[in-house]
Specification:
By secondary structure, this protein is mainly α. It is about 40% helix and about 0% strand. The chain contains 13 helices and 4 strands.
Amino acid sequence: MVPWNSSVRESPVEWLLEDKNPSVRYWTLRDICGKSENDSDVRMAREDIMTSHPVTEILRNQEPEGFWITREDPYLPKYRATYHQLLILSELGAAPCEQVEKAVDLLFENYQYDSGHFNWKMLKTARGRGSSLVDGACLTGNIVRALIHFGYLHHEKTQKAIHFLVRVHEAGWPCRAYPIDRAKVFPEKCYMGGVKPLIALSMIPEEERTAEMREIIDEEVEIYLENEVFMYLRDEGGERKPKPGWTRFGFPLFYQSDALEVLDVLTKLGAKDERMQKALDLVLSKQSEHGRWNLENTFNGKMWVDIEEKGRPSKWITLKAVRVLNRMYG
């Protein structure tokens, strides 16, 4: 039995299934109700996604050549450039279409290194250089995540990116920006960014995961469990303390993360461990009497379209929370 907050008076599932947000309805039908892609309600929801306001607004701002803002920089300005749009479109459940295909073709042709990872800016003459390898894991993980959603798992360029993630992993993924201060954290490798390639690997069907992939997944799951999901900072006395930003749930997250996102991928991978309890208690503590969760962290005003209102009940946060709790206790 799912342990809802004791004051909850109603299940949030019917609210999530409302027609007004076809993206959340689609994922609820799939992940909570257990419907297949062939189910008529699922097919209808996915069709409705393509005419929903967030998706049409994002696609409306795409240039005819396939990029957003500028061809030269797929990352900046943050939250409006090409990389971010492919990620948010995939999270919204958008289906493959001509505009997405144009963006992916551009991505493969201009922004991917020969090593397989993706660059922050357009490549020009530096295709073979590996100078950005230490920056590539979180970005590459997010892009692979989008590519798999759009049906590119078996494309040679996607496979090349996945092989990069496998190749550079060594008890975590490296990043020259992490940590800013080694004395203030426990994990040795990038902790916020590490969840992004883990999500990507979790989207690969189990039967298609290599032994190396399975080993990496096991190692990463253990790293997040060891740090109790969001207890990875070190205080002056050497004891664990929470990362405050990870206790405020947001959607979309892009390069950021939070405890709910980590729980989402851990439970998807089948993890059930007492070291998750602190994070699960955090999730339950935030549920309202109507069974819903609020949006606490947002990039509103920086994206092409605001998805939800900060401080108000959020279908996206509620979707993830219910999904996590169902996997743990359902």
